[in-house]
């Protein structure tokens, strides 16, 4: 199966990837995938059923429980297969970038650098960590004499539930540590972004991943919820909205099932008096409006000192006004469309709410003419931190600029949020900026930029989630400890 990067090709697939091969769905329901840039249907794929999920979990269970299978292999043996998987994915990198941009509106410049690169990078990174001497098993002197052997053992079958905004990067932040550690996986892509998951299945077949080690069933929320509570699942890894995360946490709590949750955000860009925003324009836009604003860690709540409020609002307005809006597949595009008409309407309802609450639009605030689910990149000034547009996650190209009197108030406002996921501090004095960053309650924060580091832990506090992905720390979500006492 290949889905080609020809934008005129319509993908028609009735298959799930289960047990190492393409298996037709037992149901007849379909998901129609629409290009948000052109509003044309670009694919029709299976809408997985509970029965499909049963088969996928059974395949993953059998692969994990096989007494000579994947989970029992030496890390180096798994690493060889995962290296082939990385190579097969990288060979399809352009196809993946195109598929992602065609489905969710991500500018091709972003999908080409992030979505096609992260899978291979993460597979190699985690394969290397698990293969380090002493990682899986070590001994220590026991307190009452003798030696204790401490083992890290894979958990079993992992349910990986993926959102549409960075479907490849967020899939492989789960798949790579899970598989390297010896777990098996059932992945449920979001209905908006299934085409790129078909590429993952094709790469897995080419790489010779053993049957059942990875299984992919596209489906909606109900079948996702069915997977979360499935008796054959040992661990859930979820990225998505805080609302869905709460439901999943409640189910996993009842089952005492380990779960990691990467959820929503409303992060602050804390701009200090001496910041040079214009000199850092590209970094500032990348931190505040990445991927059309459809990014969980975006610094959309911009806090600027009253003393320089007007000047900073002018700078931000000029930067945002200059952004090129267009078809996601145009390499020049900086802001593509929203993923769906529903998401566009949701973003526009926040724009209306901002106006109604008395905030002032300095650029944007509407929808461009023509086809596509576009929203004009928008800046709101005269916002107070208690307004809805300052507190709720909009998930679109909408920035809110809020004034503060002194550094202490800036930090207080940064922390006055239900969320705590990303953020940024802007100052020409790096040491001072790092000190301010220490006081922000969040999972990650950038200095004069926000560049996600796959080798460091990423995740949220408060309503932004539980647990960490990325970095060596992520592995701890995919193993359990066993102590063998030998006195
Ligand atoms: P969503 O919660 O609607 O859906 C995410 C995925 O979960 C989809 O595959 C969906 O089908 C599935 N799902 C939804 N409800 C479920 C349930 N009860 N049980 C099982 N599966 C369920 O989110 P979305 O609209 O696809 O993604 C946008 C959200 O994701 C935003 O809130 C964003 O901030 C968040 N996000 C967080 C991170 C992070 O790392 N913290 C990264 C990207 C996106």
Verbal overview:
By secondary structure, the protein is α/β, with parallel strands linked by helices. Helix content is about 35%, strand content about 20%. It has 15 helices and 23 strands. The strands form six sheets. The protein has a seven-stranded mixed β-sheet with strand order 15-16-17-14-13-19-20, with helices on both faces. It has a six-stranded mixed β-sheet with strand order 10-9-8-11-12-22, with helices on both faces. The protein has a three-stranded mixed β-sheet with strand order 1-5-4, with no helix packed on it.
SS-derived structural category: alpha/beta
Uncertain runs with pLDDT below 50, 5 residues or more? none
Shape: globular
Bound molecules: nicotinamide-adenine-dinucleotide
Q: How many independent structural domains?
A: 2
Strand order of the largest sheet: 15-16-17-14-13-19-20
Top-tier CATH class of the largest domain: Alpha Beta
Average pLDDT works out at 97
Total beta strands: 23
Most strands sheet: 7 strands, mixed
**CATH superfamily heading of the largest domain:** Aldehyde Dehydrogenase, Chain A, domain 1
Estimated share of beta-strand residues: 15-25%
Q: In CATH terms, what is the architecture of the largest domain?
A: 3-Layer(aba) Sandwich
Radius of gyration: 23 Å
Topology-level CATH name of the largest domain: Aldehyde Dehydrogenase, Chain A, domain 1
Number of helices: 15
Question: What's the helical proportion of residues?
Answer: 25-40%
């Amino acid at each position: 199966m290949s889905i080609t990067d020809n934008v005129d090709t319509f993908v028609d697939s009735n298959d799930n990837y289960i047990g190492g091969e393409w298996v037709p769905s037992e149901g007849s329901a379909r998901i129609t995938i629409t290009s948000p840039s052109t509003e044309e249907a670009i694919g029709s794929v299976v809408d997985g059923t509970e029965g499909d999920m049963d088969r996928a979990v059974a395949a993953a269970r059998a692969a994990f429980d096989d007494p000579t299978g994947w989970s029992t292999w030496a890390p180096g043996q798994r690493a060889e297969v995962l290296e082939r998987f990385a190579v097969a994915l990288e060979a399809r990198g352009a196809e993946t970038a195109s598929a992602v941009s065609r489905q969710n509106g991500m500018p091709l410049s972003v999908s080409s650098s992030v979505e096609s690169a992260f899978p291979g990078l993460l597979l190699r990174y985690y394969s290397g960590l698990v293969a380090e001497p002493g990682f899986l098993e070590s001994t220590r002197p026991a307190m009452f004499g003798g030696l204790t052997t401490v083992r890290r053992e894979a958990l079993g079958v992992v349910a990986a539930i993926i959102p549409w905004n960075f479907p490849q990067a967020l899939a492989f932040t789960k798949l790579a540590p899970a598989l390297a550690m010896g777990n098996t996986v059932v992945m449920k892509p979001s209905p908006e972004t299934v085409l790129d998951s078909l590429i993952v299945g094709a790469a897995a077949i080419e790489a010779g991943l053993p049957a059942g080690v990875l299984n992919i069933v596209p489906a909606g929320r109900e079948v996702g919820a069915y997977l979360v509570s499935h008796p054959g699942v040992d661990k859930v890894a979820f990225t998505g909205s805080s609302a869905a995360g709460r439901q999943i946490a409640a189910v996993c709590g009842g089952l005492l099932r380990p779960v990691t949750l990467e959820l929503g955000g409303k992060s602050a860009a804390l701009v200090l008096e001496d910041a040079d925003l214009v000199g850092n324009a590209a970094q500032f836009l990348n931190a505040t409006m990445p991927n059309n604003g459809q990014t969980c860690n975006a610094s959309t709540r911009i806090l600027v000192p009253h003393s320089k409020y007007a000047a900073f609002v002018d700078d931000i307005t000029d930067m945002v006004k200059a952004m090129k809006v267009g078809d996601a597949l145009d390499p020049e595009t900086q802001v593509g469309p929203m993923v769906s008409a529903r998401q566009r309407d949701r973003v526009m309802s926040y724009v209306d709410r901002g106006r109604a609450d008395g905030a002032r639009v300095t650029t944007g605030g509407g929808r461009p003419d023509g086809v596509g689910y576009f929203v004009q990149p928008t800046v709101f000034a005269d916002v107070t931190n208690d307004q809805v547009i300052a507190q709720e996650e909009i998930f679109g190209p909408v920035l809110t600029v809020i004034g503060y009197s002194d550094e202490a108030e800036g930090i207080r406002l940064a922390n006055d949020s239900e969320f705590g996921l990303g953020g940024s501090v802007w100052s020409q004095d790096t040491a001072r900026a790092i000190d301010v960053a220490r006081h922000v309650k969040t999972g990650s924060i950038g200095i004069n930029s926000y560049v996600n580091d796959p080798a460091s832990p990423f995740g949220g506090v408060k309503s932004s989630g539980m647990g960490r992905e990325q970095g060596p720390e992520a592995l701890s979500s995919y193993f359990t400890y066993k102590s063998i006492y030998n006195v």
